[in-house]
Amino acid sequence: MPANPKYLSSTKERILKITAAILGGYLLSMAIHLIIGMSLSIEQQPIMVATTAFSAFSLWAVFMVIAFIAKSGKKIWAIYGSLIVFLSLIISWLKYF
């Protein structure tokens, strides 16, 4: 028995959610880890690099789940995109000032 089409999301909506989950979640988790790494002292940064390999993957998985739970792909891209831009501004501020 096939699924009722009125309960399924459109192809465009699925593509937006999948790209937000994979690309947006990855960029967001890396931006968070870059801010943490840049705020640490030089002596603590090698430890941060080792732990980023594990914690970034876990955070990426959480952002992927959040993207698929969201009702709208456009809304989740807007949220992820604005957070990525905001965190990128913080990263550039930490780097140059």
Shape: elongated
Write the H/E string, N to C.
HHH
Low-confidence stretches: none
Strand content: under 5%
Main sheet summary:
none
Gap between N and C termini:
61 Å
Mean pLDDT: 92
Number of helices: 3
Count of the separate structural domains? 1
Helical content class:
over 70%
By DSSP, the count of extended strands is 0
- The assigned structural class equals mainly alpha
Cα-atom radius of gyration: 17 Å
Task: Describe the protein.
There is one protein chain. This protein has helices at residues 11-39, 45-69, 73-96. It is elongated. The protein has three helices and no strands. The chain has one domain (13-96). Helix 1 runs parallel beside helix 3 (73-96).
In short:
By secondary structure, the chain is an all-alpha fold.
Summarize the topology.
Blueprint: H1 11-39, H2 45-69, H3 73-96
Please tag this protein with its features.
single chain; 97 residues; mainly alpha; 3 helices; elongated
